[in-house]
Predict the structure.
Amino acid sequence: MGRYLVCVTGASGAVYGKRTIEALWSSGHEVHAVFSAWGRRVFETETGLSLDAWLDGIAFPRDRLYAPDDLAAPPSSGSWRLDGAAVVPCSMSSLGAIASGATTNLVHRAAAVALKEGRRLVLVPRETPLSLVDLRNLTALAEAGAAILPACPGFYHGPETIADLVDHVVGKILDRLIVPFNGVGSAYSGDAARGPDELFRRWGGDTRES
């Protein structure tokens, strides 16, 4: 199984970070996490959950949750091996800091390490509209090797709930991280149109009669 880092910043859309951590953790991967100060605040505001209570509820190891100002934590070093990292959601201020190389907290530093080491880095902005500054930062990060994956769910899979929309985006994040799943400990329920380890129904072509 893999080792992944999920960073949650202060953009709206904390449920995407929550679900990414849950999906990786429940499938047996080694998951590490960083919540920025505003990431924690937005998480608790939008989900109605205490971050500490939620982590306890999923039995997440506390020694794998790092303080955002702890620049001595393992993710700060390129010698700490990692299969991939995601900043989800990624605020525009975090995006700007990562693009400029101004690493003032552990989220920024961990993303910078992923870029310099050539590791998979997925950035999930959730902002609209985007200014020219934002677009230039996104372009710079794409050119540097990051995957830019806006929190824009599709509708071709027939979503019926908000959870379905969230899972579509999170499934895309896991695809981009190239996360291996083997079904052991998976929290996903399969059906005839998707595998047991997939969060959303994949497009299989238009089967309507012409």
